[in-house]
Design brief:
Blueprint lengths: L1 E4 L3 E5 L26 E5 L4 E10 L2 E13 L14 E13 L2 E9 L34 E12 L2 E8 L42 E11 L2 E16 L9 E19 L2 E11 L12 E3 L5 E3 L1 E13 L3 E9 L1
Antiparallel strand pairs: 1-4, 2-3, 4-5, 5-6, 6-7, 7-8, 8-9, 9-10, 10-11, 11-12, 12-13, 13-16, 14-15, 16-17
């Protein structure tokens, strides 16, 4: 089955935050700077999608293969808005899912299992909550990422799903999508782009995958409730002299949790609440908060970060969906 659509989005923002199709929430300017005095408008086809979905059954094992591209990839071209809209394809999703009886296994690049679901712990985009907004960076306060990993799910019944995933880690010091970056101690500025990801490198060292667990309850088609948790570990090597951690490792574990609900209180009207709190999990808030800070003695310290998205969705007639959300982090 082919997957995709052709899209042309017209964007107007009352302040110039330096974004493109997606908003840089962390760089929205205050009114006392020049970028707040000018708005921005542009057309973009970048949210167009291409992909495919393959469904089948082999000797009692159901399988799904899913692939999805958009055109928000990084380009080195300098004339995108001058003479040539050469937008670059970007891999969004590419995974395979196998299920036999009560056990399910998924591997590949998918939405993180920490992303709120609408149904079970399904990886299909229609079964996830990332809002109905047209902004491709979705909502401030929403926990999400798309990254490689593996997950195992167990279905004790049609109403309960238990999941465990190991996903791509990243020791993140901030700076993505307009978010703030930490200031390293003067003697340890060399950690950036070497041991901590400052949005430049993709190869910082990591101890182990990010481990995520989730339990989802769907007692009826009108109620979805879930609880999720994440464990991460950060590790630095301090080569400076004259500090307590000179020539030593500093290792700290971080953790977080989420409680989410999606409930149809009456026909075609749903209340939604997604709530996340962490110690070292800022990367999952679309990178708006750093994961850690580094103390003057070279020790690593996870940062507290959390977010919430709350609101409602209402279906009006057969084709119109109205949604209102508020999100903070």
């Amino acid at each position: 089955m082919p997957v995709g659509f052709m899209d042309l989005t017209g964007i107007w923002k009352d302040k110039n935050a330096g974004g493109s199709l997606g908003s840089n929430f962390g760089s929205i300017p205050y009114n006392n700077v020049a970028t707040a005095k000018l708005g921005e408008f542009r057309f973009s086809p970048q949210n167009s999608r291409l992909g495919f979905r393959v469904d089948g059954n082999y000797k009692g094992t159901q399988f799904i293969g899913y692939n999805e591209f958009d055109f928000v990839g990084t380009s080195g071209a300098t004339n995108l808005s001058v003479t040539n809209g050469a937008f670059v394809p970007r891999l969004r999703l590419f995974w395979v899912d196998l299920r036999k009886d009560k056990v399910e296994f998924l591997a590949g690049q998918s939405w993180s299992m920490l992303t709120p679901n609408r149904k079970g712990i399904s990886a299909l985009p229609g079964d996830l909550f990332y809002s109905q907004t047209t902004d491709i960076n979705y909502m401030l306060g929403l926990t999400w990422t798309r990254q490689p990993g593996v997950r195992v799910l167990y279905h004790p019944s049609d109403q309960v799903t238990i999941g465990f995933s190991a996903e791509n880690p990243d020791q993140y010091m901030g700076g993505s999508a307009g978010g703030s970056s930490i200031v390293l101690p003067a003697a340890l500025t060399g950690l950036a782009n070497v041991q901590l990801d400052n949005q430049v490198t993709q190869t910082v060292p990591d101890v182990h995958p990010d481990f995520i667990a989730k339990i989802a309850l769907d007692p009826t088609s009108r109620v979805h409730f879930e609880v999720a948790g994440i464990e991460r570990t950060f590790k630095l090597w301090n080569t400076t002299t004259g500090t307590a951690f000179s020539g030593q490792y500093s290792t700290k574990a971080g953790a977080g949790g989420a409680v989410n609900a999606n409930v149809e209180v009456f026909k075609n009207f749903r209340l939604i609440t997604n709530n996340y709190w962490s110690d070292g999990g800022g990367r999952y808030l679309f990178g708006q908060a750093p994961d850690v800070v580094v103390r003057a003695d070279g020790s690593v310290s996870p940062l507290h970060s959390g977010g919430t998205v709350d609101g409602f969705e209402a279906t009006i007639g057969k084709t119109l969906l109205y949604a209102y959300y508020g999100g903070i982090y």
